[in-house]
Design a protein that fits this description.
The complex is a heterotrimer of chains A (317), B (260) and C (470). Chain A has 317 residues and is mostly helical. Chain A has 12 helices and 2 strands. The chains are: A mainly alpha (317), B alpha/beta (260), C mainly alpha (470).
């Protein structure tokens, strides 16, 4: 294999994408709303398609506004169907996002001859081609991929919003009822998180596609949750794991298939696979919450006899 | 009937409160004026609506009718003077925060938007933890605490607010003897400082020792008043027994109607 | 996307001719597609009902995404083994294997880590789709025929073939047989797993069977609508059926019917209008059925509930009016005319209205309703006379109200000064059974007098009676 500047750009774009996703993704996981990320990543499709058909451009401002609107729409419709239809939230979520996704597919296929729009590109991205579309950034000598600029800005935007409302996100995720009694409206932050997720998904779809983005939203955050018991380290770890997945994924994409005599494969897909590998390793090996550690503790407990049957980590002192 | 005014002195004054909301038990027509600076126990069987009463007071669930006033004002105007200790099961203890983090949450309302948690906030949180007797556990992740310790964290989170009235939902549920003693001592201390607490309680044997006042609740207020007057065999029998089938049925019908 | 219909003959208008051909299933291809999707709808409606009742609707989502790597890997293995890799059974077998593995992984992660259901599903879903794309990327190079693999993602409804129909017919038959044979077992599993297990019920095996059936339907549906939209089929028909019935049996039938109908109508529409992705159209058809059911379902649709609400408001109006009239009769003529009842005589409208704070509009609405329901004999010269029916109904309403007031005072220790308002909230809700129970409880057959002073004209500020101890 050989590594070119192109490969570096691809990894950088992937990393920016992973960081942008890890920030809202961590809160989705902590709130038990991982599937809302899934729902939104499918549901933005009609918004993307409409914005494409209307403006003919990608990653434009109207598109981000549309994404935010769709994010809220998905959350509101889900809530609405759940409340008024008295269906469980999983089912109402499924109804909303599959319907919106079907709508988006129709729009894309109908509009495909007018605008250059390929459904497969929307679904699983074209990370390899992002370095070809560049812009010049003041202060940087070389032309920078447009996707990198967009994704880095979104990552920064997410970081700023989360930093500004860190307290509020923390308390509304941990104990929404308490937050409400203190006058911090938990519903407000629910919708804010939906907006962040939707905007991130839209920014990311070009690089990794609107379906694989779910892996970047959820898996690094879930992995980090197995490694730490603190919120800030969790956010940092999730971002780092995302970056590692980007590097590892691209490396796998260009090295593994040639081993079997094939040409290289989709980096976006391999990035998702890499998040999976990292998760698997962590799940087994994590110091406290890993499978081995749990098993060891279990055996330890048995050895200590029936008198100390309590898990020292769960019923301490 | 209109006409009876809310007492401005009463820390909590509930007027004609009726609640029929989703899955919580129905509460009929609660009318209460709590005395200042006393410890009030809310006693009643499971499903009597004790937690519902607290939540309806704090605007956490909507009321079908009625009014609630804290120190003569609606809740949203006096949030800072009221502390709330929810049931321990109401949160996910796997959440990645330390005991100290949880206690500082009690100060979020006071710190305000956009301002970060500062050192003196953390100092106050540590003091509250010390008061609850678990200063040394400040940096533990909350999952690693025992049930009693988790309850103390919640208590410290309320104490750090320095509220004038505390509403506590089953703080004595499933805690060890040491925690029970700490809780009792803290409640006494609150009373000595002239502050009050409304505590949902389930252990009938400790009621006399802890509370000055009791509210016997079962879908409606059966009796309310000073403990020695009200906490009698006869009243308890009325609270825990009695034919409430019809009342429950009517509540169910009302809830269905509110749901449409 | 369809390419279904040949050039129209000149005789009829082309559009009409087209419509007829599609609706009559004249065209072989249309017939095939419509039948296949209808069967898919039927099977997924049945399985989806139990998934919905078991609150596992989104399990299908993780499952279907997890089939993609299986398709790609099976293809690569087949190529490595020397075949063209185009063999459908092999591909579907691969899909089934990874689909089941994915489901298993979700359960493993949930049970053996601190992560919860949703995160476990999100992980499996996202990662396996990524792996699938990566494997497909490899497969694209492995042979030109691999291009067909993308059909699994979006489906290739318009180019279904006879073997797809047989596959779906087989699946539908199997699902139908299992569901019919194990209906009550599945129902118990969904309703109360713990109870079932306690009774020595093979809950785990049943659960596994249900998930296997879901996998089967998903895989059979891959070709028809694609792996992302097949989820919709597992959710939408069942959710739509829920609004029409409260019982499992009819719900199963309805879900199967709605599923089949969406398949049929969606496939027909996409055959009529060229260049529509048929899978998406079918899902939208199912969404339409869902939306209609959400609003108009007989068991708990919104329109039905709104109608019930309107009926209730009417009832409230009627009862308020009649009770006011009756109490006014008591006030004007005393209640000792015939066995504790006041006489039915003309009432001064002014007195009646003064007792209540009714607005002009409310008053007219109530009068209109009372006339419509034959509760009024006549209204003239400022007086109002109840009809015999109205008088009887009024007596009944007043009786219920007062029984409830007495009950509240006697058994719920609510003060007399409060019971009126509480009874006001409840009197409209009392069912005949509850009234029977009230009668038993209070041992009364007559119409009791009011336990509190009744409002009288010009004396709004009434004195509360001494409150009972509370």
């Amino acid at each position: 294999m050989s590594w070119f500047a192109l490969d570096t750009w691809i990894v950088l774009v992937g990393s920016a994408c992973a960081v942008a996703c890890a920030l809202p993704g961590s809160f989705l996981v902590l709130r038990g709303m991982s599937l809302m990320g899934d729902a939104i990543s499918h549901a933005v499709l009609p918004g993307l398609a409409l914005a494409f058909l209307l403006t003919g451009s990608r990653a434009s401002l109207p598109m981000f506004l549309g994404a935010a609107a769709i994010g809220i729409l998905t959350a509101v419709l889900t809530q609405w169907i759940r409340r008024w239809g008295r269906l469980e939230s999983g089912a109402s979520m499924g109804i909303v996002f599959t319907t919106l996704f079907a709508l988006g597919l129709i729009l894309i296929v109908r509009g495909a001859d007018r605008v250059d729009l390929d459904p497969s590109c929307v679904l699983y991205g074209a990370l390899e081609f992002t370095p070809l579309d560049t812009v010049s950034v003041p202060g940087v000598g070389v032309p920078v991929p447009r996707a990198l600029v967009v994704l880095a800005s979104v990552a920064l935007f997410n970081l700023l919003v989360l930093a500004a409302f860190f307290k509020e996100f923390r308390i509304t995720s941990f104990d929404p009822e308490m937050a409400d009694t203190l006058g911090i409206r938990s519903g407000l932050f629910h919708y804010l998180l939906m907006i962040l997720t939707a905007v991130t998904v839209v920014a990311a779809f070009e690089a990794v596609g609107s379906v694989i983005v779910i892996a970047l939203l959820i898996v690094p955050a879930a992995t980090a949750h197995l490694l730490t018991d603190r919120l800030v380290p969790l956010l940092v770890l999730a971002s780092l794991l995302g970056i590692a997945s980007a590097g590892l994924g691209h490396l796998l994409a260009i090295t593994v298939p040639p081993l079997f005599g094939f040409a290289d494969t989709s980096t976006a897909g391999m990035m998702a696979a890499a998040t999976g590998l990292l998760f698997l390793a962590t799940w087994i090996l994590a110091p406290r919450h890993g499978l081995l550690a749990r098993r060891y503790r279990g055996r330890h407990r048995e050895a200590a006899g029936p008198g100390s049957a309590e898990d020292p980590f769960h019923r301490g002192a | 009937m209109p006409g009876r005014e809310h007492s401005a002195r009463a820390p909590l004054s509930i007027h004609d409160l009726t609640v029929a909301y989703e899955r919580s038990p129905v509460l009929w027509d609660v009318d209460l004026d709590l005395p200042a600076g006393s410890l009030v126990g809310v006693i009643g069987p499971n499903g009597a609506g004790k937690s519902t009463l607290l939540k309806a007071c704090l605007d956490l669930i909507p009321r079908a009718s009625g009014e609630v006033r804290f120190f003569g004002r609606p809740y949203r105007e006096v949030r800072r003077r009221i502390g709330y200790v929810p049931q321990r099961e109401s949160v996910d203890w796997d959440f990645p925060v330390s005991a100290l983090d949880v206690v500082t949450m009690g100060l979020y309302g006071e710190i305000g938007w956009f301002r970060p948690v500062r050192r003196h906030h953390r100092e106050r949180a540590r003091e509250a933890l010390a008061k609850a007797g678990i200063a040394e556990l400040a940096d533990r992740q909350i999952q690693q605490l025992s049930g009693g310790q988790q309850q103390r964290v919640f208590l410290a989170r309320a104490l750090v607010q320095r509220a004038d009235l505390y509403l506590m939902d089953e703080p004595f549920a499933a805690v060890d003897a040491a925690t029970q003693r700490t809780l009792t001592d803290l409640l006494q201390e609150l009373r000595e400082e002239g502050r009050g607490a409304v505590v949902v309680h389930h252990d009938l044997s400790t009621v006399r020792a802890i509370f000055d006042w009791v509210v016997l609740l079962n879908l409606r207020v059966v009796r309310a008043g000073p403990t020695e007057e009200v906490f009698t065999e006869e009243n308890l029998a009325a609270t825990y027994g009695g034919n409430l089938n019809l009342l429950a049925q009517a509540g169910e019908a009302l809830r269905q109607r509110e749901g449409t | 996307m369809t390419g279904v219909v040949g050039p129209p003959p000149a005789a009829l208008s082309p559009a009409l001719e087209n419509l007829l051909r599609v609706l009559a299933l004249l065209d072989y291809n249309t017939r095939l597609v419509v039948l296949t999707t209808a069967l898919l709808g039927l099977a997924s409606g049945l399985v989806g009902t139990f998934l919905l009742l078991r609150r596992r609707s989104l399990m299908g989502d993780a499952l279907s995404h997890a089939t993609l790597p299986g398709v790609g890997l099976a293809f690569l293995l087949a190529v490595a083994a020397g075949s063209s890799g185009k063999s459908l059974p092999v591909l579907l077998l691969g899909a089934a294997v990874t689909g089941l593995l994915g489901t298993l992984l979700v359960l493993l992660i949930r049970n053996h880590s601190r992560l919860k259901d949703d995160a476990a599903m999100g992980i499996v879903l996202g990662v396996s789709f990524g792996v699938g794309i990566a494997v497909l990327g490899v497969a694209q190079d492995a042979g030109g025929s691999a291009a067909g693999l993308e059909g699994f993602i979006y489906g290739k409804t318009a180019s279904l073939v006879r073997s797809d129909l047989f596959l779906l017919a087989g699946t539908a038959f199997l699902v139908l047989a299992c569901v019919l044979a194990l209906r009550k077992e599945f129902t118990l599993l969904c309703f109360d797993e713990a109870f079932g297990s306690a009774r020595g019920f093979p809950a785990r095996r049943l659960d596994a069977l249900l998930l296997t059936l879901a996998t089967l339907v998903t895989i059979a549906g891959l070709q028809a609508v694609g792996l992302i939209l097949v989820v919709a089929f597992l959710i939408l028909p069942a959710a739509a059926a829920r609004f029409w019935t409260h019982r499992v049996g009819p719900m199963l039938g309805l879900a199967a019917g709605i599923g089949a109908l969406s398949g049929w109508s969606g496939a027909s529409v996409s055959a009529l209008f060229g260049r529509l992705p048929a899978g998406a159209v079918i899902v939208l058809a199912a969404s339409c059925f869902f939306t209609v059911s959400l609003f108009f379902g007989r068991a708990r649709g919104l329109a039905y509930r709104w109608y019930q609400h309107r009926l209730f408001e009417r009832k409230m109006d009627r009862q308020h009016f009649l009770r006011a009239a009756y109490e006014c009769l008591e006030g004007c003529y005393g209640r000792d005319h015939r066995g504790g009842l006041p006489p039915n005589r003309p009432l001064p409208v002014r007195t009646l209205r003064a007792n209540r704070g009714w607005s002009e509009a409310e008053w007219r609405r109530m009068l209109r309703q009372a006339r419509r329901e034959d509760h009024l004999e006549r209204v003239d010269r400022g007086h109002l006379l109840l009809s015999e029916a109205g008088y009887g109904e009024a007596a009944r309403v007043v009786r219920n109200h007062r029984l409830w007031e007495l009950f509240l005072m006697k058994h719920a220790a609510i003060a007399a000064s409060h019971v009126h308002r509480d009874a006001d909230a409840v009197e409209h809700l009392l069912s005949p059974e509850m009234v029977d129970e009230l009668e038993r409880e209070l041992d009364r057959r007559d119409i009791p007098g009011s336990p509190h002073p009744l409002p009288t004209a010009g004396a709004e500020a009434r004195a509360d009676p001494p409150a009972l101890p509370r």
